[in-house]
Write a structure and sequence with these properties.
Blueprint (H helix, E strand, L loop, with lengths): L1 H13 L1 H10 L5 H21 L14 H25 L6 H11 L1 H14 L7 H27 L3 H46 L1
Helix pairs in contact: 1-2, 2-7, 3-4, 3-5, 3-6, 4-5, 4-8, 5-7, 6-7, 7-8
Length: 206
Amino acid sequence: MKQDFFRFPLHVIVHPFDGFWDLKYDGKGKLRVALVILMLVVLSVIMQKQFSGFLVNFNDPRNLNSIMELITIVFPFFLWCVSNWAITTLMEGEGRFREIVMAAGYSLVPIVLMYVPMTIISRFMVQEETAFYYLLTSIAFVWFIGLLYVGTMTVHQYTAVKTVLTMVLTVIVMGIIVFLGALVFSMLQQIYEFVLNVYREIIFRT
């Protein structure tokens, strides 16, 4: 079991088409593994911002908030999953929400594999070697996007073009959800302030 815990995610990132097919149809993907990978990404990003060498780290460690880092990673992750599920339901996608979460989670593996060692190495870099740092972290992000693309295509059994369209629409829906959420929050805040002012006025007059 422990071997599968490590072996299958590595298999997915090296052989994405076979890996995501096995995830969907052979039951090799595990939801808890995807969530563990997500938490490892959170820890990797926190480590990167907290402990990277000063040549590549422009964050003030005194102002870093681990809770906010958690939110800024976990919230977009699940927002992507919900938005993708909503879009693909309308576009005859075959993926279930659980499979979307697993595909997105397993796609994050390159970020963990790259960010942790590069954070350590960056502490010993000289100025001329920082380009190597930025190159590898960029490769990790591009690798993640590529895996997410293949995972979305395999899970929903889409064509290449339809997968691109679906991912673009997913991002648009994410923006719409955030906008509506902010709008609702603003309205609720205004209602709360109105009720509070009415209450204060009543108390003052009595």
